[in-house]
């Protein structure tokens, strides 16, 4: 039986954040500029409020400036666009993040399209998505970037490996497939219309779950020795009536089959904010020159 290795995203993210903090100190000493991240939150979605608070705290801990703009839920689209225009023009702001989801009366695509692509640290602007697709330097979405960092740390070179990404969202699945292609993997993107999903998954040396369905990917869908990255974050109520978080992969079933796997929580999740900080520093370096 294979001994399944745990990929510790929490520890990796801590090391990454420490490295970013020291790079921020060096950047500040060389240029006199402190990288600045502006986060825009519209409304009071409880999960979004927690994310924004965590982002603000970790931004400050990395030695960067944090600008939080909390707007009431009834804020008009024009007011949000006007704030983004102000942030685009503000030289102390190097990264702009609009927390999703936005209230229903605001067109998220219109808002994302207004962010200066050079400050688009979430990497959701079509200019950055297009630059990634054609192999140009881009700001890359944080969660996929974190997944590839964990994979390279676990496996070294990814060249020639068969990668299957389950999920094709613009936020995770599609950019992750592009990044794996850039690492010379042979990439398959699976989705809700894929035929014989278990069979497709069994081909994978690298199997990624980015679906949002609790424990959908079963142990016998995993090729022995494969590296499994579980992006899913699903809240379920256990038999004891308590809420807990599970991924898209049946974690217990994967033990003894997968070569390595990320846990949920403590796998991909902590990498997302760390990569947001990395993108903010990257944006500041490019903007300052
Ligand atoms: P979306 O809902 O945007 O996309 C889900 C994808 O899964 C779609 O492409 C969909 O296919 C596919 N899918 C749905 N059902 C099935 C099925 N039965 N079989 C195969 N494919 C299926 O989700 P996101 O990409 O935004 O997020 C995915 C998960 O990752 C969620 O659990 C989310 O919470 C988590 N997440 C975690 C982050 C982190 O920091 N760790 C960050 C972002 C997301 P189709 O296109 O055909 O509908």
From TrEMBL:
Segments forming a coiled coil: none
SUPFAM superfamilies: Aminoacid dehydrogenase-like, N-terminal domain, NAD(P)-binding Rossmann-fold domains
Positions of the Tetrahydrofolate dehydrogenase/cyclohydrolase NAD(P)-binding domain: 141-286
The protein's assembly and partners: Homodimer.
Gene3D superfamilies hit by this protein: Leucine Dehydrogenase, chain A, domain 1, NAD(P)-binding Rossmann-like Domain
Entry keyword set: Amino-acid biosynthesis, Histidine biosynthesis, Hydrolase, Methionine biosynthesis, Multifunctional enzyme, NADP, One-carbon metabolism, Oxidoreductase, Purine biosynthesis
A GO molecular-function descriptor: methylenetetrahydrofolate dehydrogenase (NADP+) activity
Protein name in the entry: Bifunctional protein FolD
